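[step 3/7] fold_predict: job queued, chain A
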Amino acid sequence: MSAVTVRNLPEDTHRALKLRAARHGRSTEAEIRAILEEATSAEKRIKVGSALAGFRKNLRDIEFDTQRDPTPPEPVEFE
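[step 4/7] structure written:
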């Protein structure tokens, strides 16, 4: 797990975090983790297909062969 230190946090903000944590029945540290998790959850949910589609959009001038080779692959041999 990574650790983060927040310096120069205004006292009003710290007090508000403590109150919010108390309302949710958790520690201030757990509340801050929940806030950060919620704020970054959209970035973590990027789907692979969406990422590939976005990548493909950036490659407009390149033609891709989308035909699959119907022959079955050769099995891998481990010695």
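[step 5/7] annotate
The chain is about 50% helix and 0% strand.
The mean pLDDT is 86.
exit 0
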